[in-house]
Design a protein that fits this description.
InterPro entries: DoxX. There is one protein chain. The chain has 174 residues and is mainly alpha-helical. The chain has one domain. 63% of the residues lie in helices and 0% in strands. Helix 2 (54-60) runs antiparallel to helix 3 (69-77). The chain is globular and about 55 Å long.
């Protein structure tokens, strides 16, 4: 039974990928992932504003990781960008996911963050699979399934004149 955008509750309750349970699940994953990042960003903003000094400090201490001298250079030379960018980025990514607006763009940015966290943390005490990789997979899921179309604002944004005039914008939505 296929999912119906006009009336998602009209279909029989089923587990198939086009059914309403899948739509609810994808929307739930999107909102929870969004809350996770939104909470992390807002907490940093409340505690230290746009001066999140832990980020550059952490990067400066990453001399023995898989990334080598790159994070140390970033910590020394990009500190102002990181101090403001991490809390703002996490907050905006989370907000976009929670309301379902520009989800693919938000998830791409979140995937970038999680890739840096996954490689940067590089402890891998339990192998390559850790919480950072799971976060990366969640963001990948948002991109692949166009999670903003499921009970999110992207379903509305896709019908605007702007998106109809520039159809490539659909790649940012969903």
């Amino acid at each position: 039974m296929a999912y119906s955008e006009t009336n998602p509750l009209a279909a029989d309750f089923g587990f198939d990928i086009g059914g309403p349970l899948a739509a609810y699940w994808i929307a739930l994953l999107r909102v929870i992932t969004g809350w996770w990042f939104f909470h992390a960003g807002v907490t940093k903003l409340i505690e230290s504003g746009l001066n999140f000094t832990y980020g550059p400090m952490y990067l400066k201490g990453m001399t023995g990781t898989a990334l080598g001298p790159i994070p140390v250079w970033m910590g020394n030379n990009l500190a102002p960008v990181i101090e403001a960018g991490v809390p703002l980025g996490e907050t905006l990514i989370g907000l976009g996911l929670m309301v379902g607006a520009m989800v693919r763009l938000a998830a791409l940015a979140g995937g970038f963050f999680m890739t840096l966290f996954w490689v940067g943390n590089a402890g891998f005490g339990h192998g390559l699979v850790n919480g950072d990789l799971m976060g990366l997979l969640l963001f990948g899921t948002m991109i692949v399934f166009g999670a903003g179309r499921y009970y999110g604002l992207d379903a509305i944004l896709e019908k605007t004149r702007l998106v109809e005039a520039y159809p490539k914008l659909r790649y940012l939505l969903g």
